[in-house]
Amino acid sequence: MPFFKRDLNGSGYIVLNIIRGINIIALLSIVAASFVMLVRTFVVSKFFFFDGVSHVITGFLALALIITEVGLFRRYLSNNWPLLSINSGFITLAILMIILSISILGNLNKTATSRKALGSTFWQLTIAAGVLGGIIGVINIFANYLFRDKARGLTARQVRAYGSTAPQKAMSPELGYGSQQGAYVTRSVSAPRQAHMSDVHPAHRGDGQPF
Questions:
Q1: What are the residues whose beta carbons fall under 8 Å from the beta carbon of 62, sequence distance 6 or more?
Q2: What is the model's pTM?
Q3: Could you give phi then psi for residue 187, rounded to 5 degrees?
């Protein structure tokens, strides 16, 4: 049984927030590595367009993931990017981090981003960014399944954000998608009662209508 089921405010909450800090560090290193390679591509190969664009996309995608990890724009993410919102786990985040890491490491075979072109310091930074991002991506996959509470419908991201208050916060209106789920459940429960009242004979409803 996962630790967070016994102590939502303890092990799960603390461990997941430590992982979040490492996520942000790994993503920042990917951003730095991407823009270092972008500059070197411009200097060495006179800015080969598609190669440069790939570095820009990698960098900005990593920045977008940092925003989701910091916790900004929760309502927007819930409504438009639900797989990266608080109502989803870490699987999408983990897969994207692994893809970004593979992209970073794959570029090291090119002339513009080789060890000779980047220099020993920047080359080591690039390798570190790729390796760290890949490892923490795999850790996020395990954390997603280890710390979620499937029985109560709580994602690991909700446990990370709210700890022991996650069951109460999960249907908060600020979460958008979750509040819609809650509204749907409420309507579903109340609908049979309304249908039952409509089946009552008019004479018993007291509306004064004849048979």
A1: 27, 28, 30, 31, 34, 100
A2: 0.73
A3: -65, -40
